[in-house]
């Protein structure tokens, strides 16, 4: 990089260093010293055989001391769990669970005894004991020939008490690992109870608990895990809980069930919204936001499209309002770029689904085109170039779909051109708020409008009036250029007029009846002369302005 391309501050530093180097050279010359030779680059030191051996030994000891213990305890816990699942037909129904509780007590005792000498084994044993305590309680109803406790209400109370106890132990031991493990057991409880509103209630409580633990103890991975488990449990319920019922079918009631998904999404959004001020919008925050948005709305869309079609328009309109509100809150409170973008895009998507569900085609596509103005307006407020670019791509796709789906282009197609011009105007009006440093996106919208109007008029007006309508578009562009003092509209007027010239000489000259042909040539000739006079005046003004500046 040349010095001229450096920043002003860097150039000052370089000049100072050069002056310092010159002074040192003069001192060396005065003292008759030889210039110092540059130190040779340090040689790459290869690790010695003893160091390689030490590294290998460390890896060996790590595997032998820690991983073998961890895998051994997991294997032991699984073996005990299989032992408890045996039928034991000739024994009292409570006995397997009692045996499990006794083993749990032994494991807790060993964990306590090993806490100082073998701390890592103590922690692994404690985790295995907590899982075994839950499994022993679960054995009171499941896995036996007959349940020891047949009441699901009693099982709900017992399993919930175990999960709460386990979470208290996790908090006391300050272990995010144990907390994640027992949050997972809570979701298992929701599945095994298999009652609709209990599933929803437990899922809400567990989602809120994971967010609380994340905010209170900075265990930031817990909500990340809970996001997947929350929506997975709701999906399992929607599929009629085939793990317990053995039958896969989609549940179609109650209608209120879909709105719990929105509630889950709000809970997890609140976790990121109220995170500490010292926690930036890092990769974990961005990923949790992305998965919360995408999985929540993906599941919401799946349920409403497959089994809740009667309320699809209303439900997605509500989802749009909620997600857009969340994006606004993230922008106002956090000035968040990525969370604002993700929640806003999901909100726009939900609004698009509501429009498609409410209006028949191709009218729905026209409304989707007008939705672009809402997206542009909010994107400018959010200062989001991502939304601007994504919206333009979606806008073009919608217009192309409209062209392919409609049998005959109608006057509604003009709205796409109007939307393009208004979008470009809004972006120009608030260009200082956008991060787009070039005219690219505004030019893209103007270019889209430039082609859409001639195309639409070519299909909606009688063939004899097409060229005349294009001349009318030219006049409108020129009026806009004068009102807005924007030369881009003059270029659009000039381009449309040139298109008209091409049409008149290629199409009108050979296809139109004599009367229409005469009208086309006369109007075109007048328009060309008027435009020539206008450009003559513009050149005169420009020349006089330059002459005044040179004096």
Question: What can you see in these coordinates?
Answer:
The chain has 551 residues and is mostly helical. Among the domains are: 1-31; 252-357, no CATH class; 359-460, no CATH class; 465-543. Helices cover 77% and strands 0% of the residues. It is built from 20 helices and no strands. The protein has helices spanning 8-30, 49-84, 95-113, 119-138, 152-172, 176-193, 196-217, 221-238, 242-245, 257-273, 283-306, 312-334, 338-358, 363-382, 385-405, 414-429, 440-460, 466-484, 487-511, 514-550. Helix 4 (119-138) runs antiparallel to helix 5, helix 6 packs antiparallel against helix 7 and helix 8 packs parallel to helix 11. Mean pLDDT is 80; it is low at 1-6.
Give the proportion of residues in helices.
over 70%
Low-confidence stretches: 1-6
Task: Using the alpha-carbon principal axes, give the shape.
Answer: flat
**CA-based gyration radius:** 36 Å
Sequence of secondary-structure elements: HHHHHHHHHHHHHHHHHHHH
Strand content: under 5%
End-to-end separation: 41 Å
Helical run tally = 20
- Give the class from helix and strand content and strand pairing: mainly alpha
Total number of β-strand segments?
0
Round the mean pLDDT to the nearest integer and report it. 80
Sketch the major β-sheet.
none
Tags for this model:
mainly alpha, 77% helix, 551 residues
Please write out the topology.
Layout: H1 8-30, H2 49-84, H3 95-113, H4 119-138, H5 152-172, H6 176-193, H7 196-217, H8 221-238, H9 242-245, H10 257-273, H11 283-306, H12 312-334, H13 338-358, H14 363-382, H15 385-405, H16 414-429, H17 440-460, H18 466-484, H19 487-511, H20 514-550
Helix pairs in contact: 2-4, 3-4, 4-5, 4-6, 5-6, 6-7, 6-8, 7-8, 7-10, 8-10, 8-11, 10-11, 10-12, 11-12, 11-13, 12-13, 13-14, 14-15, 14-16, 15-17, 16-17, 17-18, 18-19, 19-20
